[in-house]
Amino acid sequence: MNDMSVLERAVSQQDIKISARKVQVYYGDKHALKDVDVDILDKTVTAFIGPSGCGKSTFLRCINRMNDTIPAARVEGEIRLDGEDVYDRRVDPVQLRAKVGMVFQKPNPFPKSIYDNVAYGPRIHGLARNRAELDEIVEKSLRGAALWNEVKDRLGEPGTGLSGGQQQRLCIARAVATSPEVLLMDEPCSALDPIATAQVEELIDELRSRFSVVIVTHSMQQAARVSQKTAFFHLGNLVEYGETDDIFTKPQDSRTEAYISGRIG
Amino acid sequence: MNDMSVLERAVSQQDIKISARKVQVYYGDKHALKDVDVDILDKTVTAFIGPSGCGKSTFLRCINRMNDTIPAARVEGEIRLDGEDVYDRRVDPVQLRAKVGMVFQKPNPFPKSIYDNVAYGPRIHGLARNRAELDEIVEKSLRGAALWNEVKDRLGEPGTGLSGGQQQRLCIARAVATSPEVLLMDEPCSALDPIATAQVEELIDELRSRFSVVIVTHSMQQAARVSQKTAFFHLGNLVEYGETDDIFTKPQDSRTEAYISGRIG
Amino acid sequence: MTDLPMPQNPAAAQPAQKSSLLSQDDRTRRRNAAEKRFRSYGAAAIGLALAALVVLMITIISAGSGAFRQTYLSIPVALNAEQLDPEGNRDPAEMSKVLTLRYGSVLDSALAAAVENTGIQIEGLSDREIKGLISREAAAQVRNRVLADPELVGQTIELDVLVNGRVDGYFKGRVTMASAARDANTSPEQLMLADALAERGMLVTRFNWNFVTNPDASDQRPEAAGVGVAILGSLYMMLVVLFLAVPIGVAASIYLEEFAPKNRWTDIIEVNISNLAAVPSIVFGILGLAAFINFAGLPQSAPIVGGLVLTLMTLPTIIISTRAALKAVPPSIRDAALGVGASRMQSVFHHVLPLAMPGILTGTIIGLAQALGETAPLLLIGMVAFVREFPGAPPEGLFDPASALPVQVYNWTQRADPAFIERASGAIIVLLVFLLCMNLLAIWLRRRFERRW
Amino acid sequence: MPLSWALIASFMLAIAGYFVGRQRIYASAGPDIRLLHSRPVYHGASVALTTLILPLAVLAIASFMRMGGVIGASAGPVAGLVALGAAVLGLGWGVSRVGQGFQARNAVEKIVLGILILCSVIAIATTAAIVLSLLFETGHFLQLYDWKTFFFGTEWTPRFQGNSQLGVLPLLWGTLYVSLIALLVAVPIGLFAAIYMSEYASKRVRGIAKPAIEVLAGIPTIVYGLFALITVGPMLRDYFAQPMGLGNSASSVLTAGLVMGIMLIPFVSSLSDDIINAVPQSLRDGALGLGSTPSETIRQVVLPAALPGIVGAVLLAASRAIGETMIVVLGAGAAARMSLNPFEAMTTITVKIVSQLTGDNDFSSPETLVAFALGLTLFVITLGLNIVALYIVRKYREQYE
Amino acid sequence: AQAREQIQISGSSTVLPYATIVAEAFGENTDYRTPVIESGGTGAGLQKFCEGVGTNTIDIANASRQIREGELAACQGNGVTEIMEVRIGYDGIVFASSANGPDFAFTPADWFNALSAKVVVDGAVADNSATNWSQVNPDLPDQEILAFVPGTKHGTREVFEEKVILAGCEESGALEVFTAELGEDAAHEACMTLRTDGRAVDIDGDYTETLARIDSSPNGIGVFGLAFYENNTDKLSVGTISGVTPSTETIASGEYPVSRPLFIYVKKAHFEQVDGLKEFVEFFVSDDLAGPDGPLAEYGLVSDPELADIQAAVADETVMQ
Ligand SMILES: Nc1ncnc2c1ncn2[C@@H]1O[C@H](COP(=O)(O)OP(=O)(O)OP(=O)(O)O)[C@@H](O)[C@H]1O
Ligand SMILES: Nc1ncnc2c1ncn2[C@@H]1O[C@H](COP(=O)(O)OP(=O)(O)OP(=O)(O)O)[C@@H](O)[C@H]1O
Ligand SMILES: [Mg+2]
Ligand SMILES: [Mg+2]
């Protein structure tokens, strides 16, 4: 299976999954994102890096229109998923979000059992024909999020009683369970220990064979490890975007260089 | 002043600030923390590391009795602060928490303005005689948490409108503003970019000259960078505790070694 | 899906599994339909509620707006000295022996003279019908004026007197010629006379402040009845309720939600409070009679007792909504406050309470609204009463007899003269205005406190 | 009025005490007041509170003894003096406590906690008083009337001449039937309205709709009653009951239930709206992010999280329904009857409590005293319902964060 | 105890309108304050009255019936011993239907046969199955039977049962049949048990409610007080009983059978303590007010033919034995 995905990756590398043009986001008067142009490729992991508050989460939330829920937020410009404008009036944000899954920066498990947390997406999207299939999806997703062993005996307990890191992995499992085409992950590993992080990174690598993954991370190392493309944001601007290796080894912009070498924040 | 603090550190290194003996924590039936014995020194940074769900946050919350707020949690054993049992009936948990400040794993700013978030502690403890002094404390704390530049023009805006990392730094600033004797930080840098992380680490190092700092972190590098002592938790046990250098270079316990080398999680 | 044979042209393989965003698949369409339905249920629910409100409002206002207008007749009245001051010494003490009945006859002759002077000729108009044109209140009106200024006796003064309720109703459309034909208390001739007087400008219908300021009047004088005493009584009671129920309710909720240990006792208290909400309001009246009047010796018919009873009655509403609001504040806020060394009391009063404020205010609004419109408990403590004297200023006034707005409504709807039905609707309008004033403040406050986290 | 003078004097002393307390702590604190356990405000407040508490207690006890007839009116001035003395004592004690080592905040908080407890005790005391005032007369009733007929009788026909049938069952049935219909109207409408206001409506619409709906709770019930009597009742009869052959009564359970339901909408909608609004946005984001529609989010995530509060709101509405009189009298009639047909006239326990208490019956006859027994029975029944509700909430309660 | 300035009155809502008229005039024409008059029913009024003596108890109880033995005993038990019973006049009870419908001329027997649960059919006791007035009495209009009778809380109900239904029972001869079949006590009870199939509708509210019900069910016939009817002659048409049209005159003369006396009960012990109490009672029964031409009669109270005796009794402060 792995061989195949490698092969696949090679051929589909150049498909553009998401393309953003001149995206502007305002929170009330605050201009939080300025003129962002970016093409995110299919079956690729793209990392967003940049100092805190630069607009990474904001841009992520634009892609699956989660910004719709913030009354003050206003988005301009164009974001296309498979060539279709996601802000088109005919687009149903629900269908969009089913295709573009998301893991949030703050873990937000539902006040339900662990099982129901993970089964929520498959249930609403009708991904399982019966209970057995659902069980399978839940187990697979929890395993993928490196949580299965810790919770397999307490699937019926509330997800809110887990430790911070466990909650975050639960949210990852929940997002994976719906099999989206694109997975947006906002600092998925920030609350995780190195081993869990490694497992999640492995999962991301595996997911890449099927979806496009966008990950926000503060860890340069992680970006280097998991991503093929990296975008660097600074003060609401997308400063530089390119092959991960290039960004980390030969950044074009002085700000990127400064950030990578630890000089600006 | 730096010279002085170095001097001071040398002499007071051995003062025990917090000593825990046979601490057990149960969440209902779940035995989350088993027989933890540890001495935390004054004017020292102690790092707690360990896989997710091993009980680091739980132990941290024991120290300033934040566990009192979880009805299901039950603490046994003895924790002494400056030789006084914090679970003594005569101890006022409020006074205890004023001395032992805390930054939580999930950022939880008050739904108030940024200024009021930071000023809250100083206000209730009467740390400022007048508005000017309060302004000064707020500014100093925000600077310490590397947030001042980002928010100095919007101190009146709600703290909940900040980005994840900004919220986390706001919480750090809030905790620092009350000048506690011990500062407990539960993964304070997990949502921060490297530069902000570096600034917070700098702050921690600075704080060390005045308080004792306990920090939970998943980053081995960070533990190595900021802490003098490290404790490794695993499945509710305190497996190993010692000088940070020793833990990372010559761990005594096989589990510690496995964790550090990335084999168990 | 990964088992598929490797496609040569990936683009060709994609459409099979990829759906366009612009076209919805079946399931999405169904879910969106469900979403639309759900949303329209919500809109329909609001629509229904608002429609009910509008219908009720229209009913009330169309029935009650008449109470705010009143017809007056202005006639010259010769104050005959022989009748009004038989002793002739203009001594008010002596003159007060003359009853209103005597003044009635003075008015009767004044009226007859006035009608004659205008030269109006109406077929079959009897003396009784001319006399019946004006309210019985008029005599009292004249008497008061004369006693206040005895020198008026012997003079002829121009007087604005209330007309009879039926005639007044005629000018407001309540009484018609057809109904008057059947009505024992008026007649088409009387109405024709009124029409003729109105043409000459002697009869005018104008805004009726007296409705808001007058006290109640007896069954024979609907045109003179007002809600003055009732407004004061309701105001006093609401003050008592506001100053007792809200602080006590909020304090009790804070204790139960934030401080009380969660054990069987608090369960009992919780059940007990929601059970108190189900106790019929009249039972609170029984309690009020037993505890405040018979045991504590507070006076009958006093707003203080009414206020206390209503306080007990509204407490559960306030406590239940406040507790729900406190419960909804996320624990992380409390943690945050405790973490910087605030005491539990401080965390509650500084953070939790302000965040729970919208819910508390909602409970207060609903509780007060309910208290303001309640009659049943007042039945037993003597506030469902005919009270003509205004209570004094608080705090002593709280102990004076008074009625209340809902009581006035209740009383008036029971009276025989149909003119009182209009008054009752008018009183309801006053009550709603009262309620609105009370709510506006709370709603404004609630808006300021509302936020999502 | 010696008592109110004593009260005012105590208040003045307390205010003075506040400043004295603050003064003393500043004086004794030395250069750095930050070292104090409590802020000076708390020291001031603790003095003020200790000054107030004793005289208030004295006055409370005195007026209680006065009511109970233990002391006469002439004891007023004495009580006033004692209270004043107590205030001075409290002041002295309070001031003497002020000092570096004194934990004023804890002392103040203890007193505040005491006040909070006292307030919650009022709720209990009310219940006790209600039960007591009902119990006594119920005892009288049961001496005069056979309890078996009362509890199990299916006929309710009080007579002036005595020998009445006073069976509670038809009244109970009417109560449950009317309340059920009212809730069937109020809960769906109220809940959907709450959902729409908190999740869909713009801020402006919500800002108008919510208070507007709340007005429904403030309209005097007699207006609803007349509405039921004049408009709804005949309408139901002419367009539903008669065509369907279900009777031709203008007053019916359905009429009262419908109209009462309208009145109860704000109880459900406004309280639920607050609760739903308080569910953290992050939960909604979580569900929306998985591609659920807003309605799925609401049904599956938001509502379960808000459940305890919503149940509270529904219970409150149910309580009002059970306790309502005017609408039932005018809408459902006064006939005690057990029937399934919602187009028939029936009546409720509450209505009969009111009418037996305010009627022309002999006040010492079972026909009047039965009102107290009815009240007590209703009390016990609703108590049972509430216990069940609490149990259900406990079972399904879901805690977030 | 201290004196009270304002008279406090409680009791029957039937007496209330008359009491308010008197109180208003009393307040207007004297220097005393206008009395406060609660309405809460005869029972509740008498209960408050019998609560005890003293300024925080009421002074006068309005009653639409005479005080009962048990109530008197309770009064005396609480120290309320010197009670003055003052009959203020009579209240006529009339039967009226919508003004737009046909006129009715009833006899008590018609009422009995229309509303009683059991009637006599062919000499045997049977369930009442009459649906139209014309079935009861061919002279009556062919209109559905629907009667709004006072609920069991109202004193009017008692009068209605005794003076109309029971009288009709006797008049129609049903009482004899019932007595033969059921025994005397049960026969009375059987006479006065109204049918429960929705044709006799109890009204727990007041006359306005009855009027509103006739508005919404134009077939209905309601039971009203005379005063109420006289204020609403445009909407109601009154039925005659045995050929007599109700009016203050026919009732005072005893021709019209359905009426009852109204009372006020006064605590003599309060004459000292409450300003103007005695004056008020005297004012109440004075010719100016309670006389046949006074405002009370004008409003619908049937003036007491023995008013002079009552005035004398009040002047003498005669108390009940
Ligand atoms: N409120 C609670 N109720 C029940 N179990 C809990 C609760 N909080 C934590 N636990 C459990 O206790 C164990 C220790 O949790 P803790 O939060 O201390 O872990 P942690 O070391 O901080 O992990 P992380 O790094 O993921 O934050 C976990 O297994 C967790 O599931
Ligand atoms: N709801 C909001 N209202 C107003 N301003 C907001 C809101 N959310 C974010 N912002 C502001 O927009 C800017 C970008 O925020 P964003 O959350 O995208 O940052 P980020 O790059 O994700 O940072 P971090 O790494 O700290 O999460 C920040 O300055 C932040 O303060
Ligand atoms: Mg972010
Ligand atoms: Mg943790």
Automatic annotation (TrEMBL), chains A, B:
Pfam families: ABC_tran
PROSITE patterns: ABC_TRANSPORTER_1, ABC_TRANSPORTER_2
GO function term, MF aspect, one: ATP binding
Keyword field contains Membrane: yes
Superkingdom of source: Bacteria
Membrane topology: Peripheral membrane protein
Keywords, sorted A to Z: ATP-binding, Cell membrane, Membrane, Nucleotide-binding, Phosphate transport, Translocase, Transport
Residue ranges of every copy of the ABC transporter domain listed in the record: 18-260
GO CC terms in record: plasma membrane
InterPro entries per record: AAA+_ATPase, ABC_transporter-like_ATP-bd, ABC_transporter-like_CS, P-loop_NTPase, PstB-like
SUPFAM superfamilies in UniProt: P-loop containing nucleoside triphosphate hydrolases
Predominant place of localization: membrane
Subcellular location: Cell inner membrane
Protein function: Part of the ABC transporter complex PstSACB involved in phosphate import. Responsible for energy coupling to the transport system.
Protein name (record): Phosphate ABC transporter ATP-binding protein
Species of origin: Paracoccus siganidrum
From TrEMBL, chain C:
Pfam families linked to this entry: BPD_transp_1, DUF3333
Biased composition (Low complexity): 1-23
Any single biological process term in GO: phosphate ion transmembrane transport
Domain ABC transmembrane type-1 stretches: 231-442
Region named Disordered: 1-29
UniProt-recorded Gene Ontology molecular function terms: phosphate transmembrane transporter activity
Location within or outside the cell: Cell inner membrane; Cell membrane
Transmembrane segments: 38-61, 235-256, 276-298, 304-326, 352-373, 424-445
Tree of life domain: Bacteria
GO CC annotation: plasma membrane
Alphabetical keyword list: Cell membrane, Membrane, Transmembrane, Transmembrane helix, Transport
Membrane topology listed for this record: Multi-pass membrane protein
InterPro entries linked: DUF3333, MetI-like, MetI-like_sf, Phosphate_PstA
Family under the similarity heading: Belongs to the binding-protein-dependent transport system permease family. CysTW subfamily.
Name assigned to this protein: Phosphate transport system permease protein PstA
Lineage: Bacteria, Pseudomonadati, Pseudomonadota, Alphaproteobacteria, Rhodobacterales
Gene: pstA
From TrEMBL, chain D:
Lineage top rank: taxon: Bacteria
Any single Gene Ontology cellular-component annotation: plasma membrane
Protein's GO biological process: phosphate ion transport
Membrane-crossing residue ranges in chain numbering: 6-21, 41-64, 70-91, 111-136, 176-196, 208-230, 250-268, 301-322, 369-393
Start and end residues of each ABC transmembrane type-1 domain: 172-389
InterPro entries the record matches: MetI-like, MetI-like_sf, Phosphate_PstC, PstC_N
Subcellular compartments: Cell inner membrane; Cell membrane
One protein family per Pfam: DUF3708
Keywords per UniProt: Cell inner membrane, Cell membrane, Membrane, Phosphate transport, Transmembrane, Transmembrane helix, Transport
Main location: membrane
Membrane topology term: Multi-pass membrane protein
GO molecular function: phosphate transmembrane transporter activity
Similarity field: Belongs to the binding-protein-dependent transport system permease family. CysTW subfamily.
Function as written in the Swiss-Prot or TrEMBL entry: Part of the binding-protein-dependent transport system for phosphate; probably responsible for the translocation of the substrate across the membrane.
Name used for this protein in its record: Phosphate transport system permease protein
